[in-house]
Specification:
The chain contains ten helices and twelve strands. By secondary structure, the protein is α/β, with parallel strands linked by helices.
């Protein structure tokens, strides 16, 4: 007894007429009759009473019909889930995140993906650049987001967005009255850098902006993360260069102004993933990433 036989039996049990059941199954009546006879022979019992006025289910037929409907329903559900998985519509997406980007763009990108694929389970993992690369190689991560990542033979890197840079400064600072702050003006102020645990990282990128202008930054402190850096700005320890996304971090007494230079200073936000990962979920997520417009995600 196979699925084809079960389906034929279920249709006949609903129609209780060989002609109508055969028409629904798109077969002729003799093959349907033979299928039912084979099932009854295999089971050793009658499934239908053949009466002058038509068919009626026996007790065995009623019991089998309940099981047949359940089995056929499970098969249909399995087929649907397999098709959804093949389209990247179900499954698990493990995402590596970091620092300032979690304040703005990445949550909006994830929300956009979830609106398109609500049945995909999203798990977030806060990791450094090195931890993300290791987790990708160990297949504990599907995709990561970071900055200043070099592509490798097994790791692909794509730019998601070039973020403008801002200066976080106390609202009472004289430069806070300006619409923007230049690198030269910033070089005359005590600077708070972050992170102090990743090389090459965002702190190195900020220093390179001063080097490009032939200036030297007056580094007052180097701290672990953007939250600590902006908190120290709030306390008056100095000024801090941040990506645009970090301006979502609103602490008392802190304002943000654009940083100006030629060319306009930016920092990359990239995604990284295994080159050999052909999973439908990654394909679907990358499609969302490539279509994402951060400037419209406010």
């Amino acid at each position: 007894m196979d699925l084809r036989h079960l389906k034929s039996f279920a249709v006949l049990a609903e129609e209780l007429n060989f002609g109508r059941a055969a028409a629904r199954l798109h077969i002729s009546q003799p093959p349907l009759t033979r299928q039912i006879q084979l099932m009854e022979s295999e089971l050793g019992t009658q499934l239908f009473d053949r009466r002058p006025k038509g068919l009626a289910l026996t007790a065995a037929g009623i019991t089998l019909l309940d099981d047949a409907r359940r089995i056929l329903g499970l098969v249909d559900a399995a087929k649907d889930r397999a098709a959804q998985a093949g389209r990247g519509e179900i499954g698990r997406l493990d995402v590596g995140i970091f620092g300032s980007a979690i304040f703005h763009y990445i949550p909006r990108l994830l929300l956009q993906f979830r609106s398109l694929y609500p049945n995909v389970q999203i798990s977030l993992h806060e990791q450094t650049k090195a931890e993300q690369i290791q987790a990708l190689r160990e297949r504990r991560l599907t995709i990561g987001f970071n900055r200043h990542v070099r592509s490798e033979p097994d790791i692909a890197v794509e730019t998601v967005y070039l973020e403008p840079l801002l200066v976080a400064l106390p609202c009472g600072h004289p430069l806070a009255q300006q619409a923007a702050i230049s690198i030269r003006e910033l070089s005359q102020q005590p600077l708070i850098l972050y992170p102090n645990n990743t090389r090459e990282g965002f702190a190195d990128h900020v220093i390179s902006l001063f080097d490009h202008e032939g200036l030297q930054a007056q580094v007052e402190l180097e701290v672990k993360d953007v939250v600590t850096a902006v908190a120290l700005v709030s306390s008056g320890f100095g000024l801090c260069v941040t990506p645009e996304a970090a301006s979502s971090l609103q602490l008392p007494g802190v304002v943000y102004r654009p940083l100006t230079a030629d060319p306009s200073p930016t920092v990359d936000l990239v995604c990284l993933y295994r080159r050999d990962d052909a999973s439908p979920i990654l394909t679907a997520f990358l499609d969302t990433v490539r279509k994402f417009q951060p400037q419209n995600a406010s």
